[in-house]
Amino acid sequence: MLAVALLPALLHAAPPDDWEPVPAGQLALTRSVIEPGVAAEIISWRVWVEDGVNGIHLRQTRDHYVRLKIYTGQGAQDLAKLDIDYPLRDVQVESISARTVQPDGTVIPLDRRAVIQETVVKKKGEGLRRQSFAPPALRPGCIVEYRYREIRYGDEAASGIYDLQRDLPVQKLIYYVKPLQAEGWSLRQMFFHVAAVSSPAPTGGYFETSVNSRPAYKPEPFSPPEYQQRAWMLQYYTQSELSSPEIFWGRYGRQQWEWFDPYTRPDKEALALAGQIVSDATSETERVRRLVGWIQRDFRIVRSDDPDSLRAAGLRKNGSLRDAVRQKGGTRWDADMVFAGLARSLGLQTRLMRVPSRRHLFFDRNMMNEVFLSSYQIGVRVDGQWRSFEPGGRFLPWDMGPWDEEAQPALLCDRDSSRFMDTPIAGPERSCLTRAGTFSIAEDGTVEGDVTLSFDGHWNATMRWAFEGVTGAELDSTLLEEALWKGLGMKVSGVELLRGRGEREPLQVKCHLVLPGFAMVTGKRLLLEPAVLDARQLPLFTAGTRRYPISFDFAWSERDSFRLRLPEGWKAEVVDVPQPVREPGLAAYECQTRVSEDGREILYQRSLRVGEGGLLLFPQGQYARIKSLFDQVHERNQATVTLTRIGTQP
Question: Which pLDDT tens digit goes with each residue over 201-220?
Answer without folding.
Answer: 888 889 999 999 999 999 99
